[in-house]
Specification:
Belongs to the TRAFAC class OBG-HflX-like GTPase superfamily. OBG GTPase family. The chain is α/β, with parallel strands linked by helices. About 20% of the residues lie in helices and about 15% in strands. The protein folds into 3 domains: about 260 residues, Rossmann fold, CATH 3.40.50.300; about 230 residues, Spo0b-associated Gtp-binding Protein, Chain: A, CATH 2.70.210; about 90 residues, GTP-binding protein OBG, C-terminal domain (GMP Synthetase, Chain A, domain 3, 2-Layer Sandwich). The chain has a 6-stranded mixed β-sheet, sandwiched between helices. Helix 11 packs across helix 13. The chain binds guanosine-5'-triphosphate and magnesium ion.
């Protein structure tokens, strides 16, 4: 008999966030030769489609290279044409002023919630007052009781966002868009079962009475209608469900761990966070208020010794540990849920359009990037027919790679069923501006280019815009697109645009209804189901891998892993049961068949053992006897 080394390995997964997007396709473009502003005074009257100019605009023979830049940021951009324009670079004087008035970034001062969820287990005892129990050594497992819902604030450390995330430093909190977050979730561990025996007056040798541990708390994700950003995750990153209570004497089972509910805004996409640059698998898309998904089921409670009583084992001195609760890092991403998304170059008049078709009052000003965060407005035709319209920040060339504000907001367009593309008629080359925006959308996500869209040529009240309209219209008609023209400021033509958008939205809704009708309702609990399925893998499903160089045998299987995790080595019968299970599920046989030799290391689901051939050949079967006695244990503490 000799000793064995045991090593339990816990791998801590450090996850980082990826900013990587698709690589930019080479455009091979140059800057426009003449991008100087040529704004003319505003024409006194409104205009429309019929107001086509007599002299159609002579399109300059320049190779269009990027979206027309406005004089506001031309100077700086021309020097470094591909410089990334950050929120902090854009001119937003009134906004900054307002945020200062409000107290200089009020969100920064949000305090961390103090509430702690989960259980305080305190001291755990098997004994009770009335019943004397056998002493099987110390049952305290202090380290097991630390768990409870943990709240970690984003301080300087910002634990949840480590790993290459570029932060918008220097930008007041009011301007940041909290539509991405990274959180840690952990289901509660199951409580431990205990070994206890019934001892009463006149019943000196009562049977085993150790109760089972309670089930760990579950992690749920729920859509909270009142949330419109992922801002709360700035203060709280870790969500841990409570662990199950431990079993007690007199067959008392432990209490169930407290569940934890992660509340997210409607439209949140939940991905599994990954270490590498690749985006993790989409686990859930929670769109509608009230949707609730069981994400991680709590660990099973360990069985107490009462559960191990059998005809052969009348005095079982064995109990299981609770099953560990699953854990993972999640990436949350909020995408606006709107029927119509207004896209276009900066200063095209997107916010103006939203302001005239809905009650929304977005910031409107004659400089690019007036809109820093998406604005939502509800357009109502009558009581029944309404649609939600989102006005998005302006797009620049390279938006798909993060230029301007595009990167942050382009993904919001993914959720809109229809896009209204506003083109600034007063720009130098409206048709090229249009093409460039289309290209950006396509580069960001080819599915965006396939979305139904309308083109609204804006600022028709300006003479230069109405002059360029015929050429623009011709350009688009050649592409098979029927453009609309309007003057958002004077509301001319806006009704036609909105009605056309509404019609498109309705058509898409009808089509989707038909599709949904055929498809089965989506199972929101599929992540938890997958985990449960994994837990139910039988113990005899394992694989043996032999590493010849290090004379190590790896025996891996989901069932075995769970069994090793739940074996509580402090109880004397655990070793015997472990040996028995290895024998019964065929691990020993498999190892012997493959030629395991004395002294070889055997790692069973992370537990390191040394193989010994038993010299004792007595027993019904030599092979079985040998293997049963062949794995030795060190002195377990
Ligand atoms: N003449 C004229 N000016 C317009 C019209 N629509 C918008 N504008 C002006 O164009 C400027 C920009 O308008 P916004 O609505 O802020 O443009 P935007 O597309 O939302 O701009 P960003 O949010 O910066 O991307 C403002 O000065 C508006 O008054 C229009 O139909 N005619
Ligand atoms: Mg705007």
């Amino acid at each position: 008999m000799s000793s064995i080394t045991v090593g339990t390995s816990l791998s801590v997964v450090a996850l980082s966030r990826s900013n990587a997007r698709r690589p930019k396709k080479p455009h091979g473009k140059k800057l426009p030769q003449d991008s100087s502003p040529q704004f003319k005074p505003k024409a006194p009257s409104s205009s429309n489609d019929k107001l086509s100019s007599s002299s159609s605009m002579a399109v300059e023979a320049t190779t269009y290279t990027r979206l027309p830049l406005k004089d506001d940021f031309l100077a700086s951009s021309l020097v470094e044409p591909y410089r990334e324009i950050k929120l902090s670079d854009s001119a937003v004087p009134d906004f900054v002023e307002r945020s200062n008035e409000l107290g200089g970034g009020e969100f920064d001062e949000l305090s961390i919630e103090d509430e702690l969820e989960g259980f305080d287990y305190g001291e755990y005892e098997v004994e009770d007052d009335e019943h004397e129990e056998e002493d099987y050594g110390s049952f305290e497992e202090g380290s097991d009781y630390e768990e409870g819902a943990e709240i970690v604030g984003f301080g300087n450390k910002e634990e949840g966002l480590e790993g290459g995330e570029e932060k918008e430093k220097g930008v007041p909190a009011l301007m940041r868009c909290f539509d991405r977050a990274k959180v840690y979730v952990k289901a509660g561990d199951g409580g431990n079962g205990v070994v206890a025996f019934r001892r009463e007056k006149f019943v000196p040798f009562g049977g085993p009475s150790g109760g089972d541990g309670g089930r760990g708390g579950n992690v749920y994700v729920e859509v909270d209608e009142s949330m419109n950003s992922l801002l709360p995750f700035r203060n709280r990153v870790h969500f841990r469900a409570g662990r199950g209570g431990h079993g007690q004497g007199r067959k008392q089972h432990g209490a169930k761990g407290e569940d934890v509910v992660v509340k997210v805004a409607p439209g949140t996409v939940i991905r599994e966070a990954r270490e590498d640059a690749i985006e993790g698998e989409v686990l859930l898309e929670l769109l509608h208020p009230g949707q609730r998904a069981l994400l991680l089921p709590g660990g099973r409670g360990g069985r107490g010794n009462a559960a191990f009583k059998s005809g052969l084992t009348k005095v079982p001195k064995i109990a299981e540990k609770g099953e560990p609760g699953p854990e993972m890092w999640l990436e949350l991403e909020l995408k606006l849920v709107a029927d119509v998304g207004i896209v276009g170059a900066p200063n095209a008049g997107k916010s103006t359009l939203l302001s005239v078709i809905s009650a929304a009052q977005p910031n409107i000003a004659n400089y690019p990037f007036t809109t820093l965060l998406p604005n939502l407005g509800v357009v109502s035709f009558d009581y029944d027919s309404t649609m939600v319209v989102a006005d998005l920040p302006g797009l620049l060339e390279g938006a798909h790679q993060g230029f301007g504000l595009g990167h942050e907001f382009l993904r919001h367009t993914e959720r809109c069923s229809v896009l209204v593309h506003v083109v600034d008629g007063s720009s130098q080359q409206p048709q090229y501006e249009f093409d460039a925006i289309r290209l950006e959308l396509e580069l960001f996500n080819p599915e965006l280019a396939d979305k139904p869209y309308l083109v609204a040529y804006n600022k028709m009240d300006l003479p230069e815009a109405s002059e360029r309209w015929p050429a623009f219209k011709e350009h688009l008609l050649a592409m098979g697109i029927q453009p609309h023209c309007m003057s958002a400021i004077s509301k001319q033509g806006t009704k036609e645009v909105v009605c056309a958008a509404y019609e498109l939205v309705q058509r898409i809704k009808e089509a989707n209804k038909e599709l949904e009708g055929g498809a089965a309702a989506f199972n929101l609990n599929h992540v938890a189901d997958r985990i449960t399925q994994k837990r139910n893998v039988p113990i005899n499903e394992f694989q043996i891998i032999h590493d010849i160089s290090s004379k190590t045998w790896h025996v891996d299987g989901e069932g075995l892993e769970r069994f090793v995790q739940m074996t509580n080595w402090r109880y004397v019968d655990s070793e015997r049961r472990f040996q028995h299970v290895l024998e019964a599920c065929g691990v020993n046989k498999g190892l012997i068949e493959r030629g395991v030799k004395e002294g070889d290391t055997v790692i069973v689901a992370g537990l390191e053992l040394v193989w010994y051939d038993s010299p004792d050949t007595s027993g019904s079967s030599g092979a079985r006897k040998r293997s049963t006695d062949s794995i030795r244990w060190p002195d377990w503490k």
